[in-house]
Amino acid sequence: MKRSLPFLLLLFLLSGCLQTSVPLPSQTAPSSPAIGRDEPAKSPVIPAVESPSPFTAYFTRPDNPNAAGDPEGVEEALIHAIDSAQDSVNIAMLNLNLYGIRDALIRAHQRGVQVRLVMDSAALDGNVLHTLQEEGIPIIGDRRESLMHNKFLVIDGSEVWTGSLNLTLTGTYNDHNNMVRIRSSRVAEDYTVEFNEMFVEDLFGSDTRAATPYPQLTIDGRRVEVYFSPDDGVLQHLLRLVQSARSSIQFLAFSFTSNELADALIEQSRSGVEIQGVFDSEQVNSNQGGEYENLRRAGLDIRRDTLPGQMHHKIILVDNQVVVTGSYNFSNSAEKRNDENIVILYDPATAASFQDEFKTIFNQAR
Q1: What are the boundaries of each domain within the chain?
Q2: Where are the beta strands (DSSP E) in the chain?
Q3: CATH number, span 55-61+71-364
Q4: Which residues participate in catalysis according to the annotation?
Q5: Cα–Cα distance between 55 and 161 in angstroms, integer?
Q6: Given this model, what pLDDT does residue 51 score?
Q7: pLDDT tens across 201-245, in order?
């Protein structure tokens, strides 16, 4: 027994020498990808954890009596985003009269953040905008008959908020609207270039030029398209998307007077694509050249909303995979005269959020 001890000791020492402090490749923990990475890195040998979506959708809830102050509501989310800004907040908005947004912009300005606004001139007499100007925040109007109809915010050159929502009390708490938050420096650059055309160069409407740096890009594997009107020919991109549908197209339209878009929907319906849509009832009654009756006569499942406020969305959903949103109504004015923006998101999860909103409104429509 004594003679075996040296032998056992030798085995123990050899065993220790074979251990290594360097982990094997299979032991190396993958790093989590960043939110909104515009050019995803090549896939590592070990699959990385799927990144959080760079898109967050928000919808107004006029039927919720406690919507004001709701921490999950769009106004509170925007206030938080502005309060988190470190460098810049650029806003292009048809109208703005929310006191909470006003106060957040003043706080940002007072801590040294560059705050700039472009508005439709018809809105410049509002009390909120007067207060912002008195605080030293620069605001310019378009000074043109056509509308500066954009609805977007760019924060710190790293994220964009856009959709159908004007930052007004009525738009946020009485009407049905949406906003989507996009975390991407390249999308932010697209919108900043458009903003500077208006704010710095004083170019509006037909004076604008096609200068979007990244009209088509990929964020964390998700395709995104960004277009502005009237310079980017938005209608042609919408027609291409509609014509690509294989199973379904759903839409919510505040104003719909585009003959070309209506014809494309009718043609797709004849090809077997299911078409469903809801028009805002007030616009059906007041619009000249609206496409509601035309689509109904063609046998499409088209309805009028029955909501107490405006159904102000401008949404197209394709094959439950792709969603279009922004300020662009499906009209000749939006295509040729107004300053408008749309974003096309190829993301099933975001499309599902918008489809929930569509179903809620469609099931109540008549």
Answers
A1: 55-61+71-364
A2: 55-59, 88-93, 114-119, 139-141, 151-155, 159-163, 178-183, 216-219, 222-229, 248-253, 274-279, 301-304, 314-318, 322-326, 340-346
A3: 3.30.870.10
A4: 312, 314, 319
A5: 10
A6: 53
A7: 999 998 888 889 999 999 999 999 999 999 999 999 999 999 999
